[in-house]
Amino acid sequence: MKSLPNLRHELAAPILQTLVARLRWRISREQGEVRMPKDSSSPVSMSDIARLAGVSESTVSRALNNNPLINEKTRERIQQIARSMNYKINESARNLRLKRSHTISVVINTGSAGGQTFSDPFMLDMIGAIADRLAEHRYDLLFSNRIVTSDDWHAYLMGSRRADGVIVIGQGINDGPLRELQRQGDPLVVWGGTAKPDLDYCIVSSDNPMGGRQATEHLLKQGRRKIIFLGDTEHPEIHGRYEGYRAALAEEGLDISARQIKVSFSSESGYQSIADLLKAEGLTFDAIFAASDSIAMGAIKALQSQGYKVPDDVAVVGFDDIPIAPFYTPPLTTVRQNIQRGGELMVEKMMQLIGDKTAEPEVLPTELVVRSSCGANPGYQPIQEYNQQ
Amino acid sequence: MKSLPNLRHELAAPILQTLVARLRWRISREQGEVRMPKDSSSPVSMSDIARLAGVSESTVSRALNNNPLINEKTRERIQQIARSMNYKINESARNLRLKRSHTISVVINTGSAGGQTFSDPFMLDMIGAIADRLAEHRYDLLFSNRIVTSDDWHAYLMGSRRADGVIVIGQGINDGPLRELQRQGDPLVVWGGTAKPDLDYCIVSSDNPMGGRQATEHLLKQGRRKIIFLGDTEHPEIHGRYEGYRAALAEEGLDISARQIKVSFSSESGYQSIADLLKAEGLTFDAIFAASDSIAMGAIKALQSQGYKVPDDVAVVGFDDIPIAPFYTPPLTTVRQNIQRGGELMVEKMMQLIGDKTAEPEVLPTELVVRSSCGANPGYQPIQEYNQQ
DNA sequence: TGAAAAGATGCAAACGATTGCATTATTGGG
DNA sequence: CCCAATAATGCAATCGTTTGCATCTTTTCA
Q1: Are residues A159 and A122 in the same domain?
Q2: Which chain A residues 6-65 have CB under 7 A to strand D?
Q3: Quick one: A212 and A359 in the same domain?
Q4: Shortest alpha-carbon distance between residue B254 and chain A (Å)
Q5: Helices A46-53 & A57-64 angle (0-180, nearest 10)
Q6: How many domains does chain B have?
Q7: Assuming Cys at both sites, which of B82, B127, B226, B377 could form a disulfide with B87, CB separation 3.0 to 4.6 Å?
Q8: Could you tell me which chain B residue has the CA closest to the CA of A324?
Q9: How far apart are CA B295 and CA B301, in angstroms?
């Protein structure tokens, strides 16, 4: 008995009650229709338009969606009324009905230590690029910078239908959470590295090995032989750059001189690691390849603080080409990533995944930008166009 | 007749039809209840939990919201079931019912020329701070970087109930759109300047005049007399900094030497303006107060390119204290804004506005950070802590 | 002219939650 | 032992859309 507490639902009486209640409801509703002349404060809904146009809500809905079922004249009349009443559709209602959110979540996933927001200019550019592309598809962008577990992600973003898909910037040291997300069937696109071959989620990335190779080969061409690598190779994107670096050195028969120092994604970190190194063993290298421009700038500052010259004593190449790079002293030679194209591709892939299609990973070429910090371009001036005028 | 097409709705027959249809619906529904053992793919809803717990949906809803009406035992049992089924509430449905979105829109509003995303590191830090605070209130953050008219804003964000309020970063050259938004009754908080006295929307800002004064007075104390101002005073926040600059000069009886050059928010712009100036009239100044660190760095680079020394020939002070500032050459003296507190306050104000309370504007003090570019601190080392160890 | 086809519109169920009110079960007091 | 007060739960309306199906209207063609 206890296990069937709503057995009484099945009796006849409640059904009659239902019918009576429904009648009562209809009546009160129709009274409402009469007494409601213009409830101004509340926003206008389809039923308001329907009443004004003398048609049903279904017709309004179809007319506003340009459904060919509706007569052209009716459609235009309804659209006209909607415009004049400044009608805006209620997205919550539409999304509920259509079982979607028309929103993509963008998550920053670079192990930001201690809850501190991670603010490389690269990030904002990437987010901006994604936002622009999503706007073209009329999708909204839900932003999160909280680093959480995959359970949380899935539950918070997808389970609650806050987002139709997730774009993650940064593959992170441990991509378990990402694999898990993917396994749950959520549309997922990641900006990351290309290291792991058995990927089961869609990755868009720069060709990090190519970038690492470009940077290193360039330094070698300048006659540098003792090049150290600054970056945390536990991040797949960084690891790719490191691979390129090692490959270039190996080709030159210099494998033994490869040296990697683990630093996180900040200028402070770059500064400290080089300051440490100089204090410990003096100047034992003649070039640095840094995994990001921020790191490179920190490292250069540390060298300068100890009286060493860049590029004379040590040549430096960075990665990203952030906006300030040409204006640093010395202007930073760096490997440029195609952020605009990256954002575009990620959104494209996402739209495919949402449309139940599959999306292939994609790798973007990098471009070496030679300025002065590598020693190859001492006469470099920012804004060449200006000087040409 | 034609104007009353749904007159027939009022006749008796359709009501009977309604009743019949409803009966039919009830029956099919109950059949459905029987044949639906585990429709796995679709996410679990309250009715699933209700069925499993042998209670009604209302009880489930109340139990999950910790409504005291529900017996404690029942509540815990229901919550247990919800957890075990990995239930996540459908936010679209909840938002529809509660007539809200539980989402705040954040808009970047710094006249980004030509649709190019504007990427000052300051922005990302600010967005991060806001995101963190919103997350504490369990609000979502909808990000837009499209600069549009107020009509668009209101219609897109508020009219469609995509957002419950708007936070705008940057007051912009023309705040008409903002006033309009406010007039429409939308909760609005702006990060901007303090110039206009007749504000009708809630502004949170740094004390820009204070910052301008700190920077200028510091340069004056270093013996500089011909200080130029770099920035576009049409932006209220910049105008405040300019006011502080002029006030400090006036107190010194140097009003006549005030000179402002209009540059937009980028390093390129700072570089070009100084390059132009030098080309046109040589070195006619001995100090620069720049409206942002990015501008300052561009300006310094222009000076260095022409062989001038900073701070020896020209002292420079910036504004913002972006993360790279200590690592620039020379390390940048600048006016720090309290971004964390700013984000916190804006979210606080927003919550007040949403709660139908009013929110007062608020001004945050600025802090001068003395490094080397002003000439006052030649021995400055980034990361003092490191050297102390 | 009449039946079938096509065209236009309406009805009400559905999406998944919340909540005022009604109802039932439990307890306490006289 | 009965009635009132209280605690616990259920019913059905509601938010604002979309859409399968039914219905009504008009056209078309034999």
Answers
A1: yes
A2: 6, 8-9, 14, 17-18, 21-22, 24-25, 28-29, 42-43, 45-47, 57-58, 61-62, 64-65
A3: no
A4: 31
A5: 110
A6: 3
A7: B82
A8: B267
A9: 10
According to the model, what pLDDT value does residue A19 have?
Answer: 39
| Residue B84, token pair as written in the block | 């075990």
- The domain spanning residue B275 has which CATH number? 3.40.50.2300
* Per-residue pLDDT tens over the stretch A18-46: 334 334 333 333 333 333 333 345 689 99
Q: How many CB atoms lie within 10 A of CB B226?
A: 14
Q: Are residues B221 and B260 in the same domain?
A: yes
Count contacts between A and B (CB, < 8 Å). 218
Q: Are B189 and B346 in contact (CB under 8 A)?
A: yes
Distances (CA, A) of B53 to B39, B60, B67, B126: 17, 9, 17, 46
Q: Is the dihedral of CA A56, A62, A65, A68 positive or negative?
A: negative
B27 pLDDT more than 50: no
Dist CA B53 CA A383 (whole Å): 69
Per the structure, the complete domain to which residue A155 belongs is given by 103-205+340-365
Instruction: With respect to residue B73, please indicate whether it lies within any of the assigned structural domains.
Output: yes
| Interface touch A26/B5, C-beta < 8 Å | no
The verdict on B298 and B214 lying in the same domain is yes
Task: Give the tens place of pLDDT for each residue, A207-264.
Answer: 999 999 999 999 999 999 999 999 999 999 999 999 999 999 999 887 667 788 999 8
> Do A110 and A244 fall into the same domain?
no
Q: How many angstroms separate the CA of residue B255 from the nearest CA in chain A?
A: 31
Which bases along strand D come within 7 Å of a protein CB atom?
Answer: 7-20
Chain A, 37 to 96: residues with Cβ < 8 Å from chain B are: 43, 54-56, 86, 88-93, 95-96
Q: Which residue is closest to A385 within chain B, CA to CA?
A: B272
Radius of gyration of chain B (CA): 30
B167 and B49 in a common domain: no
- Would B181 be classed as within a structural domain? yes
| B143 located within any domain | yes
Query: Are residues A225 and A300 both part of a single domain?
Result: yes
Is A325 in the same domain as A230? yes
